[in-house]
Amino acid sequence: MKRIVAGLVMAGVVILVALINDKLLTFVVLAALLFFAFNEAKTLFKANEASVILALIAFVIAFFTTEVIALSLLLVSLVFGYIAYKKDEDFKQILPYIYPTVPIFALWHLYVNEGMFELFWLIFIVVVCDSFAYFTGKIIGSTPFSKSSASKTVEGVLGGLIFASIFGTIFGWFAYSFLFSLFVSFVVAVFGVMGDLIESYFKRKANVKDSSSLIPGHGGVLDRIDAVIIAALAMVVLV
Fold this sequence. Notes:
Blueprint: H1 2-20, H2 23-45, H3 52-62, H4 68-86, H5 95-98, H6 101-113, H7 116-140, E1 144-146, E2 149-153, H8 154-172, H9 178-206, H10 221-238
Helix pairs in contact: 2-3, 2-6, 3-4, 4-6, 6-7, 6-10, 7-8, 7-9, 7-10, 8-9, 9-10
């Protein structure tokens, strides 16, 4: 029951933010996601010296520019340079600045440079893909998809990609051509699956089930946005 309630609350927040479509509100929501996701990544990577404050400062600067992706890469370069300056061999300290920081910056980049329609389209594609992958896998799934995610099946993933492509195309058709909407929907769905696998791989390496217990029945923030943030990188390139 807690999982259902938490899921409905999260869906309601996303829809409300999309309908209000206010730049500051969207920024605050993404900044909150960055804060929690960064700290969860610190735990996964055992990167205790990584500073979420530094990531948030860079994100605040990103509010005033359209070159958001470039700014995130500057942040990574700055941290990497500092590690090199100290001759610190603990390379994992840089990882939270790469994941999830750069992909979350990509979400903001998409909103700033394209708009709320594209951001919501991205989320819609990923949610449809994830939902239909789950239900298809439950109904006809039998072939394991990856050792990184034991619950995924080939049939489930294919079902998710097919339905995400169909419904994503219908959604995108309101603003773009049919073929372009189909292409974007399929590619974004593929990267969404990759995002889920990447997070599962990190959790398996860290020997944990969830990135945290912040969201009742759902785990942590990274557990909920893993597919979206990696798919955001593809969406930024495509649109």
